[in-house]
Structures are given as C-alpha cells and as structure tokens.
Amino acid sequence: MTRRGRLTARWRGPIFRHEAGLVSAIILLLALGVPDFGLAQTGPARQPLGLYARYAISGSDEVVTNTVLNILSNSAIAGILGVFEWSDLSHNSSSTNSLIGTTDWRLTDDLFNSVEYYNANVASTNPGEVPKTIQFEITPGFHTPSWFFSNTCSCDPMFLTNSEGVIVNEDAQSNLVLVGVTTTNGVTTNCAWASFLEAEDFANPTVLPLPLPWNPAYTNAWATFIWAVAARYNTNPYLVSVTVAGPTASSAEMILPNEQNDPTNYLKWNPIFALEFAGHPEYTNTDYLFIKAWEDAIDLYGAAFSNLTLVVTTGSGLPNFLNTNGMPYPNTYSVPPGFCPDCANCSLTSTNEAANIMDCAAETTVLAYFADSQHGGNNAKAVQANGTSAGGIYAHALGGGDLDNHGNKWLAQSTMIGNVSLPGTTNILSRVLGGAQVGGANGMPVITQNPDAEGCPMPGGTGCSNISPQQAVYNVLTTFFDGTPVGSNYSAPPIISSNFPLNYFQFYYEDVLYANTNSTASLVTNDNGFSANMTVQMLFSNASLQISQIAEVPLYITSTSNGVQVLWPETAAYYQLQFNDSLEKADGWKTNANTSAPTLTNGFFQVTINQSAVAKFYRLAFPGL
Fold first, then answer.
1. Which pLDDT score, from 0 to 100, does residue 136 have?
2. What is the C-alpha separation between 226 and 300, in angstroms, rounded?
3. pLDDT tier at 24 (50, 70, 90 boundaries)?
4. Most exposed residue of 11, 545, 556, 614, measured as fewest CB within 10 angstroms of its CB?
5. Secondary structure of 4-54 as H, E, C letters
6. Could you tell me where the beta strands, DSSP code E, fall in 346-399?
C-alpha cells in the first residue's frame, strides 16, 4: 500500500527538562509538532495501544486457550479484549439468601494464563516482540447471576401486563394501569428488579429481569465482585484496561431500556421512580438516577483499580422521556459546558434533534464527571464508541451524530495535554485517550461475515452489494482514522482535517481468525483513485503501525535518591527515549542520553537519569517510517 504524506518520527507525550537534582515544573507536550503546555500525569498507568480482538469468552478451558493463542499469533494484534458475563463468573453461595455469590475464576484465569503462556513462549524465541496485553470487560445488567433475582423482590406485580410481559396500556404513559402497589402484593419501596426487553443487538429479543441500577442490594453485590476482580488481577502487568460497567443492560455501553429499543416496557421507569423515590418528584421524566448510578460506578472502579486505564463506553441509549409532542420535558438538565461538540443536538434546531438531547445531555454529564481529574483514582482514562462501520465517515465531528467516534476523538484531542479545562468550564480535566470498536450493523458486527452492511461507505450504511471482506475492512478503517494525521492514507469524503489522537481499535475476533487463515488478496480502492491488491492481514498490519503514529504515550516522572526515574508503558516498546539540549533545535533530538538502559518492571519501561546529568529535554519518539 502506497503512503501519501509520509510521516517522520512522532512524539506522543510529555517532553520534560531535567536539571541537576531538579525536574522543571513545566512539562511540554508536543502533539504532532504543535507545542502545548501542560502538567505531567500523577502516576504511571498501563494503557492500551494498537489493535485488539474482542472475544466474548465462554466454553471449555481447551476452547478458550486455543482461541486465545490463535488470536495472539496474529502479529498485528496487540492483545485481547476479554468480554465476560457476570452470570458466568458468579454462582449460588452456600449461604442461604446470600447476596454475594461464589466467584468462579475459571474463564478469567483461562484468559490471563493463556496470554501469559503466549508471552513467555514468544519471549523465549523472539525477545524483541512486544508482549500481548489484555483489555477486560464484565457485563452485569441482564447478565446478573440468577441468585440475585432469587433472593430479591420484583417490581413487576405493580404493572398490568399481557402474556409477553408487555404493559397493556402501551400508548400513553399517563394511562398506565398500576396494580398491587402495596407490600401485600409483593411490591415494596425497595424492589430490586423489573422485566424489560433485551433488545440491544438481538434479532429475537426476550423479556428478562433487569436489576435497578440504584438498588443497594445490586450495587453492593456488584461492588463486592469488582473488588474481588481487582484483588486478583489489578497488578497483572498484562492487564492494561478495565471497562466501567454497572448501570447497564446487555453490554458495558450507556444503554438501558429506552423509547427505541423497548418502547413499551421502558414506560415502567417513571412508576418505579415514583414508588422508590416518593419524596423526589423531580426524578420523573429525567435520567438523573441513571447519571448518578454511572458516577457511582466510576467511583467504584477508580477505588478498586489503580495504575491502568479505565474505559467508559458511550452508547446513545439512555431514555429520552418525551411528552405527547415528541419533545423532552423542560427544565431538567442540559449538556455540560464545553461538551457541545459531543452532541449534535446542542443547538436544538429541530424537533428531531431535540428528541434526543436528554440522552446526550445525560451521557456527556457522565463523561464530564469521568474526565474530571478528581475522579477515577490513580488510573489513566479512555472513552470509546462501539459500532464503528464504514457509514460513519458521514458523521461530522461537530454534528451529525451523538456520542459517536468523532465526538470521542474531539474529547481525546481536547484533553491530550492533560489537566486542562474546556471552554466555559472551571473543572480541570484529565487526559482522556480515544478508542473505538467495530460493528453494529443488523446485529452482525463481524466485518468479514457481513461486508455489505459493515463495509458500506454510504450514509446509513445501506445500498451496497458484493463488497469484498478486504474492501469492507479498508472502508471501516477509513472511518476510524478519519480526522487523524494518517487519515489521508485512506481518503474517502468527507475526510475531516484534524489531528485527532487515537490509541486503540477493537475488531471482533472472528475477523482476526479470518486474517489468520485467508491469504487471498482482493482489489481495494478509495475515492481518490488509490487501488491495490491487499489481504485483510495487510490491512491490519498497516493499521497497527498507523495507530502507533497517532497514539498518546505519556512519560511519567518520579524522584529517586540518585536523580529522577522516567517511566512509560510497555505497550510503547517501539518508542525511543530521546533528549535535546534546547527546544529551539528541531533537529537536535538524539537517543542514548546520560541515562541507564531501560528496564522492564510490572508493565513499565524505566530509565534513571542521574542527578549530576546536564540539563536536557526528554521525549518519547516513534521512529520514522
């Protein structure tokens, strides 16, 4: 594949000056050659970098181990996003009426042991290979263990429903028939769950019990489990990120039963609000309780985990409570100051736009809380959008789609120097890395199995036929890299000119296995006249290298008795530590300064700069191509 706009060495992270016995308080971050001033992050955090394979892990030990090793054998893949259902990891406790459960570590240990085995085996034969890493995600919600529902009370008896579990009066929220709102019919003000439609990405959804996100029995059981997960895996050097979840339904995204995915059962929310929070009528017709539940989940993960990356996933899926005119109820809340670029609907220029502003306002309120430097503990942070497809190229960064890839790219760019405030705000925001995940078309997110839907570069992703898997992967990568410094390598309109940083991209593991076994090349073209015969593996290899060029890789600085110690994540193994006598010397950067050789400890490279060293500036640089 030919490259236009060939890139020179890239530096992604702080440049700092070391003086004898002193590190300057001013840290300089050069983002693709554009200088900005900011402060160093507070502590070292492992972070994802590259292409990851999403693998929903289940089955026998042998199946899991063989699949993991097969995935990791792909040289372009940086690691695995291991996705687990809580119900697969927690079983009934021997105690009567227990709300804790007994944790089963078999599947999670299979993942960690397989990655450790692979890295140890590769290290013995190829010491220069970058170790593969793990992104970790556990979904509760509909995937909550059965013991929770057996030992708690349902809210369903308060609703008159048909045999399918759907509220009979489905056309008008004000006419809902509520029955048995008394303790004699089994409904109390602390009922723990209600039945909703599991409609997210399911062709044939079913009605299942869903815990109420704020219920103390649910939040306590989930917190106990998350603390146990952290105790077992937090210090594992191969674990680079954990996805925040808790107030969710089918996935870790911000999606709950709403007016689109469950238009009848979502009407249960307001009566449940009224039952459980009778003294707070202001909660009616708002997402306030969902926002609070998400903020509590962020605090939980920030306390339980440390020195890795916490990931929050937007979903455009919190309820929009609309009146009979299809408009949101007034005087609730709005998009936080500074976050309007994440919402196409900030201007409220039409009824269609206004109909979705409540969800976007709620999710950006959560994002603002997450990005605030006061929250998240001693961890790095990342935000991602799932469902990236080729049609997303038509979503403009500052409008045209809520909480999508371009909105998250904007947030990553806006915070890339760390410790900044957005326009109109006073809170200081941490650096928030950018990531994405493929999929979403017709519930078939595997690109190579559904190329016409996932790979269609048309508005809405429809109207295409006979797209090859190779072209489909290329088209999806076009959307992912749109607006980044390497976007011109793909070039499909309307390419957005910007310097958006991105750290990782998650493909479904079936696409990786396809690349491993299918060496067939097919003609790949774009709207600029580029054409070449390429395999999916070639596309993955190019993308892996390009992510390294645009990723954010921070340097961390700690004091020692002999000087200072510089640390950076092991995932950035191909980067070089360079020094310069003066920032005015653009060509003065060199390697091998007065430092010790890098050592690797617990997922971080470490270099000691002697106290007697002459004052110099340091940076991480990615070698030129």
1. 98
2. 8
3. very low
4. 614
5. CCCCCCEECCEEEEEECCEECCCEEEEECCEEEEECCCCCCCCCCCEEEEE
6. 380-388
Pick the residue with more confidence: 356 or 403?
A: 403
Token reading at 154: 């349902």
What pLDDT, on the 0 to 100 scale, is given for residue 461?
67
Task: Determine the pLDDT at residue 247.
Answer: 93
> Which value, in Å, is the radius of gyration of the alpha carbons in the chain?
25
Give the Cβ contact number of residue 57 at 10 Å.
22
C-alpha distances out from residue 363 to 199, 253, 415, Å: 20, 10, 18
DSSP 228-248: HHHHHHTT-TTEEEEE--SS-
* Other Cβ atoms closer than 10 A to 589: 19
Structure-block tokens of residue 32: 């693709």
The 10 Å Cβ neighbour count of residue 612 is 10
With the CA atoms of 65, 67, 73 and 76 taken in that order, what torsion angle do they form, in degrees rounded to the nearest 10?
A: -130
Strand-pairing partners, residue 437, are 506
Q: What tokens does 319 get?
A: 């309820």
CA gap 144, 90 in Å, rounded: 9
DSSP single-letter state for residue 253: S
Provide the residue count of the chain.
Answer: 625
Question: What is the spatial distance between Cα 613 and Cα 331, in angstroms, rounded to a whole number?
Answer: 60
The CB-side HSE value for 229 (13 A sphere, CA atoms) comes to 28
Residue-wise pLDDT tens digits, 439-493 = 855 557 899 999 998 998 877 667 789 999 999 999 999 989 988 888 888 876 5
The DSSP 8-state label assigned to residue 597 in this structure reads P
Give the Cα separation of 12 and 36 in Å (integer): 12
- Give residues with Cβ within 8 angstroms of 353, minimum separation 6: 344, 345, 347
- Tell me the longest C-alpha to C-alpha distance in the chain: 80
> Which helix or strand (DSSP H or E) is residue 209 part of?
strand 207-211
pTM of the predicted model as reported, rounded to 2 decimal places: 0.88
pLDDT of residue 340: 81
In this structure, what token pair is assigned to residue 345?
């609907």
pLDDT (tens digit per residue) in 543-588? 999 999 899 887 787 777 777 788 888 888 778 888 787 777 777 7
